[in-house]
Design goal:
By secondary structure, this protein is α+β, with helices and mostly antiparallel strands. It is 49% helix and 13% strand.
Length: 415
């Protein structure tokens, strides 16, 4: 976030996040990208000690009673370390905890949220399955009702943090005969223990060191008090999680792209060609200008979306705004990394500079937590609904009539 967008209190928390970023050892970043470090345990423990995780949550449960703008400012700073740092930071603190705090019992909040925000436990969200990710209602993992507990069977994959998670937020089918898919699934907290296996950790193009893996559940006993929300009521949980999942992703992506622009700007002010530094050539400086512009626009969109959420705007409007933020910001930040590498030329493609790592990492941004194509589907769906519902009250006049050819209605043929 830009300074003028923040209050003094928000800026102070943002600055605390920057102190944590300075604390992270360079070797941790390198070891994660080299697959020598499986998960940034020490980073999350330190974030917990500094009370930076879940800053918008109530102090009662380990938060700081802040807001969405502060959260996004913190997420941007976490992203500047590398996209995977923000991913692991956000999955537990911004996704799993959000579900429990909004829909879970005080027992679950005490047992699972407080230690996670303190950096003493780690968690992962289990949604994507081998046969589908965006198709939430197509979940094949089952939870069979056994009276006072469920027996969970199934598989999840691409689960960030799976290798080190102490517990999982799992969506499972609890009513295979439900008349509506909205009433077929439940959300459960599953502790890592007997029957929970993590048989395969993925070797990724980028975003390494986040413990992304496949998780298998084999006859796992889960007590009914571990249901988040209502039995057969996973859809409301999923629905509310789309805000922190996608808005948080947008904010962290800004941070992940920011160092690429910084490195490229510094390089182009020192690299010389044809007797002058290359920033004097429009072919270079215009690409840097575009990248700077895109990052500032991304921050403005993130801020506007935060304010829409905080002020309780219409649910459908928020859904569109969050989807727009996720799509525009992730794709724009990929463009920022592209421009940075382009103006640096061949050296940008090497490990001499971190731009190649940033470029690899950011490719995930428009895929995870909902692809750009899914975002477009949501945006178009909600926009057309808004158009049909609110068009007349929102227009100062009928603009279609401001045409010179209005007197020829016979030319308006629609079918």
């Amino acid at each position: 976030m830009l300074d003028h967008m923040l209050t003094d209190k928000q800026r102070a928390v943002r600055d605390e996040a920057r102190e944590l970023v300075r604390w992270v050892p360079r070797q941790m970043i390198l070891d994660m990208d080299a697959n020598k470090l499986e998960f940034p345990t020490e980073f999350l423990q330190e974030a917990g000690r500094r009370n930076l995780m879940g800053c918008r949550y109530p102090k009662q449960w380990g938060g700081r009673d802040m807001d969405w703008v502060t959260t996004c400012a913190v997420m941007e700073e976490m992203g500047s370390l590398g996209y995977i740092f923000a991913c692991t930071f956000g999955v537990g603190a911004e996704l799993v905890c959000d579900a429990i705090l909004q829909h879970g019992s005080d027992y679950l909040k005490e047992k699972y949220v407080k230690p996670l925000l303190a950096g003493k436990m780690f968690a992962a969200e289990c949604l994507t399955e081998p046969r589908g990710g965006s198709d939430f209602f197509g979940t094949n993992t089952t939870a069979q009702d056994k009276g006072d507990h469920f027996i969970v069977n199934g598989e999840k994959r691409f689960i960030v943090g799976a290798t080190k998670a102490d517990y999982f937020l799992v969506y499972a089918r609890t009513d295979p005969n439900a008349a509506s898919p909205h009433k077929a699934l439940s959300c459960l907290i599953v502790d890592k223990g007997p029957g929970v296996e993590v048989p395969y950790a993925y070797d990724l193009m980028g975003c390494r060191g986040g413990g992304a893996a496949r998780v298998v559940f084999k006859d796992v006993k889960v007590p009914k008090e571990n249901v988040v929300g209502q039995i057969n009521g996973a859809y409301p949980v999923f629905n509310t999680l789309m805000i922190p999942e996608r808005l948080g992703t947008a904010a962290m992506t800004i941070g992940a792209a920011r160092p690429a622009l910084d490195v490229a700007t510094g390089y182009t002010t020192r690299r010389k060609a044809f007797g002058m530094t290359v920033n004097n050539f429009q072919g270079v400086s215009f690409q840097v200008a575009e990248a700077a512009m895109l990052l500032d626009v991304c921050r403005a969109i993130a801020y506007s979306t935060c304010r829409a959420v905080e002020t309780g705007q219409d649910e459908a409007f928020i859904r569109r705004q969050v989807s727009q933020a996720k799509k525009f910001i992730t794709e724009s930040c990929q463009k920022v990394a592209h421009n940075a590498m382009q103006v640096m030329g061949g050296i940008g493609y090497t490990t001499i500079y971190p731009v190649e790592r940033i470029f690899r990492d950011l490719r995930l941004a428009s895929i995870w937590t909902g692809t750009s194509e899914i975002m477009s589907a949501i945006i178009s769906h909600e926009w057309y609904k808004e158009y049909a519902k609110k068009r007349a009250p929102n227009l100062a006049r009928n603009y279609e009539e401001d045409a010179a050819g209005l007197e020829h209605p016979e030319e308006k043929v629609y079918e």
